[in-house]
Design a protein that fits this description.
Elements: H1 11-22, H2 24-27, H3 31-64, H4 73-91, H5 101-110, H6 117-132, H7 140-157, H8 162-181, H9 184-196, H10 204-222, H11 240-270, H12 280-294, H13 303-310, H14 316-335, H15 343-364, H16 372-388, H17 391-402, H18 408-425, H19 430-437, E1 466-467, H20 472-475, E2 485-490, E3 493-502, H21 503-511, H22 519-522, E4 540-541, H23 546-556, E5 560-564, E6 572-577, H24 578-585, H25 593-648, H26 652-665, H27 670-682, H28 686-699, H29 704-716, H30 720-732, H31 742-758, H32 763-775, H33 779-792, H34 797-812, H35 821-842, H36 855-873, H37 881-889
Parallel strand pairs: 1-2, 4-5
Antiparallel strand pairs: 2-3, 5-6
Length: 891
């Protein structure tokens, strides 16, 4: 065959390659890479669902509480919403109650990562309804359970085993929290610190990847906007650290009060008759509704009010009242069994507590304390650290939510003190206490030991079961040297463990001639479960490491032990023998053919399932990205128009809220950000206004309106030098097309004149005044101002150029008073000649037919040519004196 011939592969070769990718055993070696792709899919899917959660909750809440709605809504809607969701939770979704964090941990450690699809759907639906109706709970905890549930359901659908599904649970949890709080790093830390209890978990890489993917998905759908906007922080005096320590002490005591009250209310309602379960959430709804009748701010999560506290817009009395009311409302809603979390409310209470402490401190020590907003921000972290007991996560989370690193040191001080007080007064963390109320006891210490073999890897279902009614001699056939013990179940319930019978006991009874006795006679009298220990009742749990199984076998002298549930020590899950353990370690025997067949089948389903899921997620995200952005853009534009109308009617507070809604619907829109900043400045909220205006100026330093807003704030605060610089930046900046800037320029000129009345040597004020007059086309006044500016500051090259321009304009103006006819004629010729040169420059050969006969002809030709040049040559040079003269003459 020649070297240029094309070789073809036989059909058998292609079939063999295709068979390699469809052969289950061959795919086992690629399983880790496929699971990495699955992690990306889970992160994207969870981000998609959380974005939908936020979208549904916001829109549903807006419909239930329209602007100007009647007061009765604040009582009936929370009560009715809790009543409906209570029935759904009791009848259809019993595992969707509460926050979702304890349920996620129980699924991870007790149920092989199993979370049903019904629970996921119930959590999403019931939480959306509860939060929209005004229940004082949050969406972040439920999002964690929904995210973990999505990972669990997807893993099971793809045929993954329990070990792999347990690895996916923290991935879904971190992805959900990253999207719900918009905090990818804190989501990873919380998952490791609280959900898994191991900061060194080997699945860290997968958790980070899932969190980042979810965060990116959220930004594609809802835009890039921090959860809260806060003013910049400055430490005024080291004395402030004492104030932050006091805030930490207050945060610790309030955290303890929150946890104890919540647990007490929940304990009371758990003790009520089972039939009342569906009615109980309505008690929480009615409580928050009655409070909302008088103080509407207590309804819902209240992130809008948190923003007000962070920007110093709330009074001391309101913040102090909301600390108490929100604490009662949240504990009542949670304790009565509503669906929702405590993350958001803890941040709300913390912001109000911090604002209260900060306001008092500022009143007592005005010269040694900073803004109230900084204390509200630190209070958020202090309450979160004290209630949830994750101090590291709380520091990083507050930083990510606000994107302000300067507050870290005060935050660490308050968090540490709050955490310590909470730990001393309430030994049991809130999530562990909630699990104990439900009868669940999770492993302590480093609870997640991936890479180490655990009992689940060796345990098997017992091939035969013995019951209390069986005879002693019948038990002998199940006992031998390899199995010197066997579990005995209660005769009434095959899965209920009564105890363990040993080979020595059976042989002793047979030797004594008591082979006809029942096994129940050999077992101790029923002992209450709380009194059973590993010493008097040898047992194992599925999540115990195998080395613990070996130790307990050595202590009990038994080579077979029962495996029981954590929620109920008599719930028999299986048995594990010494041979099973050795086989799991690979010392003896091989993996059973049944287990090998299961893994092969799972691998065959994994790759096509992952590909199909990935394509589906990409298509859905693409569609919703288009839909969300389109729908939200339309809604944002309507908010913006309404805000402008309200602003013209001097209804500034309402206008601010409309602009907030517009920016929330379309976070990347600079126009909405500018409108909100200017409206806040007009409504006398300078600190928050500066947050939005400064953010805009960082992206667009030439934005004249943003500089003007900052200049007004500086002037109102008596910062004269800053006001002068900012007004000058506004005058020289870029104005929106069609913007009538005359009023703003007159305002700037007046400010400069006021400054010069008290400081006649202020070169910046003269330069600013000259720029304003130049923009207003008052060239005589502009020349005089620039002359003064150059006299005061001879090195000001900009003012020198502007002075030359002003003088050149005055020298070319044919309408200047007192001109003789010849001078006017000469100026008109010069104008015409300048315009001919410009026109010829952009349209070569276009001046052949042009002539000049008289002054009027010259000016007419020049103006006509100038108008034509606007269409053909574009915007003229503002530093060209002739162009300025013709622009004025053509008006």
């Amino acid at each position: 065959m020649s070297s240029g011939a094309v070789t073809t592969q036989s059909p058998e070769s292609w079939r063999s390659r295709l068979g390699h990718w469809t052969d289950g055993e061959a795919l086992l070696q690629y399983e880790d890479k496929i699971l990495l792709l699955l992690t990306l899919i889970i992160g994207a899917l969870v981000g998609l669902v959380v974005a939908a959660f936020i979208y549904v909750t916001e829109n549903l809440g807006a419909r239930m509480y329209p602007a100007g709605g009647a007061a009765w809504r604040r009582v009936l809607i929370p009560t009715g919403g809790a009543l409906i969701t209570g029935y759904l939770l009791s009848r259809f979704f019993p595992n969707a109650r509460g926050s979702g964090i304890p349920q996620t941990k129980a699924a991870l450690f007790l149920r092989d990562g199993f979370i049903s699809l019904r629970t996921v759907l119930g959590k999403f639906g019931c939480c959306s309804a509860s939060l929209a109706s005004g229940i004082a709970l949050g969406r972040e905890g439920p999002s964690v359970q929904v995210g973990a549930g999505i990972a669990s359901v997807l893993g099971r659908r793809l045929g993954l085993g329990p070990h792999r599904i347990r690895e996916l649970i923290p991935v879904g949890s971190a992805a959900a929290l990253a999207a719900a709080f918009n905090t990818p790093v804190a989501a990873v830390l919380f998952t490791l610190e609280e959900v898994m209890g191991d900061l060194h978990a080997p699945v860290l890489g997968s958790i980070v990847l899932g969190s980042a993917t979810s965060w990116v998905t959220l930004h594609l759908l809802l835009g890039d906007e921090p959860l809260f906007h806060v003013p910049s922080y400055q430490l005024v005096s080291p004395i402030e650290f004492i104030t932050y320590a006091v805030l930490g002490i207050a945060g610790g005591f309030v955290s303890v009060a929150f946890v104890k009250l919540l647990l007490a209310i929940r304990k009371y309602f758990l003790a009520l008759p089972k039939w009342s379960e569906w009615l109980q959430p309505a008690a929480g709804g009615l409580t928050v509704g009655l409070m909302g009748w008088f103080v509407p701010d207590v309804l819902g999560v209240g992130y809008g009010h948190v923003s007000e506290a962070l920007n110093g817009q709330m009074t001391l009395q309101v913040m102090a009242l909301l600390v108490v009311l929100k604490l009662i409302a949240t504990t009542s809603c949670y304790g009565t069994g509503n669906a929702g979390g405590i993350f958001g409310p803890s941040l709300f209470i913390g912001a109000m507590l911090g604002g209260t402490v900060g306001t008092v401190a500022h009143q007592l020590l005005p010269d040694f304390t900073g803004g109230v907003g900084a204390y509200a921000l630190v209070g958020m972290g202090a309450l979160f650290a004290g209630i949830v007991r994750v101090p590291l996560t709380s520091v990083i989370m507050i930083f990510e939510m606000t994107r302000d690193y300067s507050i870290i040191v005060p935050l660490m001080i308050s968090n540490l003190i709050s955490f310590y007080i909470s730990y001393q007064l309430q030994k049991e963390p809130i999530y562990e206490a909630l699990q104990h109320q439900d009868g669940l006891h999770l492993p302590s210490g480093l609870r997640y030991r991936q890479g180490l073999l655990i009992v689940r890897d060796a345990a098997e279902a017992p091939p035969h079961l013995l019951s209390r009614a069986d005879r002693v001699e019948d038990a002998l056939k199940y006992l031998d040297a390899d199995h010197n013990a066997w579990p005995v179940t209660d005769g009434k319930d095959a899965g209920r463990l009564a105890g363990v019978i040993t080979l020595n006991q059976v042989e002793h009874e047979i030797t004594a001639g008591h082979g006809d006795r029942t096994l129940g006679e050999l077992l101790p009298v029923d002992v209450p479960s709380p009194l059973l220990t590993s010493e008097n009742f040898p047992h194992l749990h599925m999540d115990h490491p195998l080395d613990m199984a070996l130790r307990r076998m050595a202590q009990s002298k038994l080579n077979l032990l029962p495996v029981v549930g954590r929620a109920d020590i008599r719930d028999l899950k299986g048995v594990v023998s010494l041979n099973d353990i050795l086989q799991a370690y690979g010392v003896t025997g091989e993996k059973s053919e049944a287990k090998q067949a299961i893994e092969v089948r799972a691998s065959r389903r994994l790759l096509p399932g992952v590909i199909a899921a990935g394509l589906a997620v990409v298509l859905v995200i693409g569609f919703l990205n288009y839909y969300y952005r389109s729908a939200r853009s339309q809604r944002a534009e309507q908010y913006y128009k309404t805000g402008n109308e309200l602003l013209q009617q001097d209804r500034d507070d309402e206008a601010v809220q409309q602009f907030r809604d517009a920016l929330s619907a379309s976070p990347g829109n600079a126009q909405y950000r500018l409108a909100l900043g200017l409206a806040l400045a007009k409504d006398n909220h300078p600190a928050e206004a500066s947050v939005y205006l400064n953010a805009l100026l960082k992206r667009d330093p030439e934005n004249a309106l943003a500089s003007l807003g900052e200049a007004r704030i500086a002037a109102a605060q008596g910062k004269t030098a800053d006001a002068v610089k900012l007004y000058r930046r506004a005058v020289d900046g870029t104005w929106p097309p069609g913007q009538d800037k005359k009023g703003q320029l007159l305002e700037a000129a007046q400010i400069f004149r006021e400054v010069l009345k008290t400081d006649a040597r202020n070169a910046d004020a003269y330069a600013g005044l000259g720029s304003a007059e130049l923009a207003l086309e008052n060239y005589q006044d502009a020349r005089d101002a620039f002359q003064k500016a150059v006299e005061q500051n001879p090195s000001d090259q900009v003012s020198k150029k502007q002075l030359d321009l002003s003088e050149r304009v005055l020298a070319l103006d044919p309408d200047a008073p007192g001109l003789k006819a010849t001078e006017r004629y000469e100026r008109s010729k010069e104008l015409l000649q300048a315009e001919i040169i410009r026109f010829d420059h952009c349209q070569p050969g276009g001046n052949k037919a042009l002539t000049s006969r008289s002054t009027d002809v010259n000016l007419s030709l020049a103006k006509a040519l100038w108008r034509q040049a606007q269409k053909l040559c574009g915007t003229p040079d503002p530093n060209d004196a002739a162009e300025r003269v013709l622009a004025r003459l053509s008006k």
